[in-house]
Design brief:
The chain is of the alpha+beta class. It is 60% helix and 22% strand. The strands form three sheets. A six-stranded antiparallel β-sheet has the order 2-3-4-5-7-8, with no helix packed on it. Strands 1-6 form a two-stranded parallel sheet. Helix 3 packs antiparallel against helix 4 and helix 4 (156-222) runs antiparallel to helix 9 (438-473).
Length: 492
């Protein structure tokens, strides 16, 4: 048994010393962990990319509302075909070679959903007709100013722009919500690692205490003061505490690996968490907390955006089989000549005005049914909005009640630790004096370890519940200030 103890001690020393000599252990606070996670977390990277996509879509739409310049060049266009001419009841062959370029400036008008375009077509044509047995050659230029104005319908340009603006706002809100969710997940994982560290320390303390008690009983047995069966029980207690210590070490390493994966840290880095679990009583006004939650929670704005998008869908649905029109205006100047410099020597004015109307006659009730379906979607979105508000109120109330309960649990757990420590110390003296068996001492040691862990867990639970309240209300009651995660997006 002595050899086993010596080998175990050496093994444990190697387990602790070799990593310490080979790798430098990095201490992480909760704030440092959150900073790493915000940059490296896979979930945050995906959310950031979604935010970039929405921003670039809106940027593209704003760019599309500016003047668009395009140039189309056709260096060579050759055609030869034979067709029947009804006017002369005769077949005719035409051979044409031409080159032309088309320059267009197009400008959307957001206010009226119209489009103004300036078009200039310049080209050269060489055409032969078998009917006239003549060849026509020369340059031509056609310059026109055109207006295309939809009538009696909704402004599609404005609607599309508003949809993209709402999509960007929703992406920013999703990013902020994901950031808060990440803070909660990281804090839970961070404190879980700390719990495992504390469990390992407590298990190590229990193991050290059991080693001391084992030495006491061994000396007594060797001196013939105690029975040998006490030695057997002491050996069993020592082996049990050693096994528990090794199990806690495995649990700690597993927890650290999962934590490093969550925050996007290298799995080969060795870390130790450095929490601040000092608890100060935080006074909370439940009515104020609910007001803050209803005023600040971003999920409410998300539900409102869903309502607005549903209303946009209704507008588009009402445009199905609707009475609408289109006004087209065009004024231009056309000129042609065999010589390039004389293209506009004898110009021709071109004007065109067109008004088209689309009049629905009968659609078998399709439009009416689709409108009712869109109205139902709006009502559903409004119900979701009200339900979200009620869920926020319920969530804040539950957190408030949990905090009050946890404050009482912390006081009780602190007293339990003091009592368990005093009880263990008293019974340890009895054990040394031979008035208590090793089995009974092991029970008191387990009680002390249990109370120490319970106290640590109650402190951690309170810190996590305070964080939960901050997320529920977007108000930090520890610092007495509002939390504005969306504002930080402007720096991204």
């Amino acid at each position: 048994m002595r050899k086993l103890i010596i080998r175990t001690t050496i093994t444990l020393l190697l387990i602790y010393l070799i990593p310490a000599l080979t790798f430098s252990q990095q201490g992480l606070t909760l704030e440092q962990s959150l900073g790493i996670a915000e940059t490296n977390s896979p979930a945050m990277k995906i959310t950031k990319l979604s935010l970039v996509r929405s921003q670039e879509n809106l940027n593209a739409q704003h760019a599309a509302l500016k003047s668009n310049f395009s140039l189309t060049i056709n260096p060579i266009d050759y055609s030869r075909n034979r067709s029947f001419i009804d006017l002369i009841s005769q077949w005719n062959s035409i051979k044409t070679t031409q080159s032309y370029g088309l320059f267009t400036v197009s400008q959307p008008i957001v206010f009226t959903d119209a489009r103004i375009s300036l078009v200039n077509r310049f080209g050269y044509r060489d055409s032969y007709s078998e009917f006239t047995n003549a060849t026509t050659k020369g340059f031509s230029n056609d310059l026109s100013l055109n207006l295309d104005q939809p009538l009696f319908t909704y402004n599609r340009t404005k609607l599309q722009l508003k949809e993209l603006e709402l999509a960007l706002e929703n992406s920013k809100i999703s990013y902020a919500i994901q950031l808060l969710s990440l803070e909660k997940n990281v804090a839970q994982a961070f404190y879980y690692v700390y719990q495992q560290q504390q469990s390992l320390d407590i298990a190590n303390q229990a193991y050290q205490n059991m080693q001391k008690s084992y030495e006491v009983i061994r000396n007594k047995v060797d001196a013939g003061i105690s029975a040998r069966d006490e030695m057997f029980q002491a050996e069993l207690n020592l082996a049990t505490t050693r096994s528990d210590f090794e199990n806690k070490q495995v649990s700690l390493e597993n927890a650290k690996d999962e934590f490093k994966l969550l925050i996007g840290m290298s799995l080969y880095d060795d870390i130790i968490v450095l929490p601040n679990i000092a608890v100060d009583t935080v006074k909370i006004d439940i009515a104020f907390a609910i007001d803050q939650g209803l005023a600040n929670r971003m999920e409410i704005r998300q539900r409102a955006i869903e309502v607005e998008n549903s209303q946009f869908d209704l507008i588009q649905t009402k445009a199905l089989n609707e009475f609408k029109g289109n006004l087209g205006l065009s004024v231009g100047l056309f000129g042609d000549n065999q010589k390039f410099g004389n293209v506009y020597s004898n110009p021709t004015d071109n004007e065109e005005v067109s008004l088209s109307l689309t009049i629905p006659v009968w659609d078998w009730g399709e439009r009416k049914s689709r409108i009712k379906a869109s109205q139902a979607s709006i009502e559903s979105a409004n119900v979701s909005l009200e339900d979200e508000k009620n869920n926020i109120i319920i969530g804040i109330r539950q957190v408030y009640r949990n905090l009050l309960n946890l404050q009482n649990q912390i006081v009780i757990a602190r007293q339990n630790v003091a009592n368990a420590q005093l009880t263990y110390d008293l019974n340890l003296e009895k054990y040394k004096n031979g008035d208590l068996t090793g089995m009974d001492l092991n029970i008191y040691q387990n009680q002390l370890s249990e109370k120490q862990l319970s106290y640590t867990n109650s402190l951690i639970s309170y810190k996590l519940e305070l964080l939960n309240l901050k997320i529920q209300t977007l108000y930090d009651f520890e610092k007495n200030q509002q939390v504005t995660p969306v504002m930080s997006l402007e720096k991204q």
